[in-house]
Amino acid sequence: MSDDPAAAYERLRRERPEAFAEPPGAPVRLLPSAPAGGGPYGVRYRDPYITVVRDAVEFPDGSVGGHVRILPTAGGAGAAVLPVCGDRVVLVRHFRHATRRWHWEIPRGFACPGESAADTARRELREEIGATARDLTPLGRVHADTGITGGAADLFWARVDAPRRAAADEGIESVALFDPCALDDLQDDGELTDSFTLAALLGARRRSLPPFVRP
Fold it and tell me: Measured between alpha carbons, how far is 59 from 145 in angstroms, rounded to an integer?
């Protein structure tokens, strides 16, 4: 990142005012300018996917300091999509560097600039399981980690034809299909911990979407 952190921060405030909102009663208040001490402040890292900022803030006790958060660089929400093939859910076994673990997950990803959440969901299906969405139903939105991440993901349910294994550069080891009982077993065994996947499964169950159709 070549920009001055403070200049990049001020530009971000102008371009993305919604990310710097001050809702009534907010206990952590953004300061209009960085204080002399307690730095560094500003945009500390940026790539095509995430922007890491360290805001100058006033805490509830009146003290002043920095608060770190991660924002999506593209500005829009990402998307996660629950693919259903027949009467089973499609999950990918994905290696995640942040946890240094393999995870069972639904396809998901960051939005490209100007891309709608639905188009992001369709693209992620093609990239991760080689499938096209025949039906796409919104399931709501999830904030995966409100403690540090300012972005959100729109959730979808999709009916797909038979998936295939994704390209190796996606970090996906395998693609598998699970019926509802097998999904419950995965969660009970601690093998299903991804927040996007759990939220999408909850949304599909509440709406009685396949394969969770109530008798």
Answer: 20
